[in-house]
Specification:
By secondary structure, this protein is α/β, with parallel strands linked by helices. The protein has nine helices and eight strands. Helices cover about 40% and strands about 15% of the residues.
């Protein structure tokens, strides 16, 4: 069994740190901060789309590259101060580790993703594909397929929380488990999935049912 996980909104609640970095960016660029719910709705596509959404919502113009640099500086300074694993994640990963090989596929830049995993002691993940690991990002299936290939042979399950994750798994032809406690905006039933789970304690039994 190959188990591949999304990061933000799936394994960890990173919204507080992302919101703090967004607020610091907006203040530095002379704009008012945006509320938590607005920033939450922007998460999932990677740093540059997030920053573009922030600029649009705040009515800002200017050089996008400068905004990305400012946000990356604020977020990269310490992106795990407020970020925490969702309840049950640590225990679920420990239970899942004997069942197969585990990897990560996220649109967060590779270095930032590794920083979160290290700070929160999450894993073990044999492969980590970030938003800058390939020319393509999710929902293009290439990153997920690359992660699956790196883990060898066997059935594959992708575990995520969002519309982007569901679309990625669908495009890759890979079974999808949807964590309902993440950052999606669409009703869970409307997203293509093999499994739904509300709490991480449910996932090991779902994975075992695939064997």
């Amino acid at each position: 069994m190959r188990l591949i996980f999304d990061l933000d909104g799936t394994l960890v609640d990173s919204l507080p740190d992302i919101h703090a970095a967004a607020s610091a960016t907006l203040v530095e660029m002379g704009r008012d901060p945006l509320d938590l719910a607005t920033i939450r709705s922007f998460i999932g596509h990677g740093v540059e789309p997030l920053v573009i959404d922030i600029m649009t919502a705040s009515g800002a113009d200017g050089d996008r590259a400068v905004w990305v640099e400012v946000f990356s500086r604020h977020y990269g300074h310490d992106n795990s101060t407020l970020t925490r694993p969702f309840d049950g994640v640590v225990e679920a990963l420990a239970a899942l580790a004997p069942l197969g090989r585990m990897g990560l596929c996220t649109n967060k830049p590779h270095g930032l993703a590794l920083g979160v995993l290290k700070a929160l002691d999450l894993g073990p993940f044999e492969v980590v594909i970030g938003g800058d690991s390939l020319p393509q990002k999710k929902p293009d299936p290439a990153p997920l397929l690359a992660a699956a290939a790196a883990l060898g042979e066997g059935p594959v399950l992708y575990i995520g929380d969002s519309e982007v994750d569901a679309a990625t798994a669908h495009a890759a032809g890979i079974d999808f488990a949807l964590f309902t406690g993440g950052y999606r905006k669409t009703e869970a039933a409307e997203l293509p999935h093999r499994f739904l789970f509300d709490h991480w304690s449910e996932l090991p039994a779902l994975v075992q049912s695939m064997a």
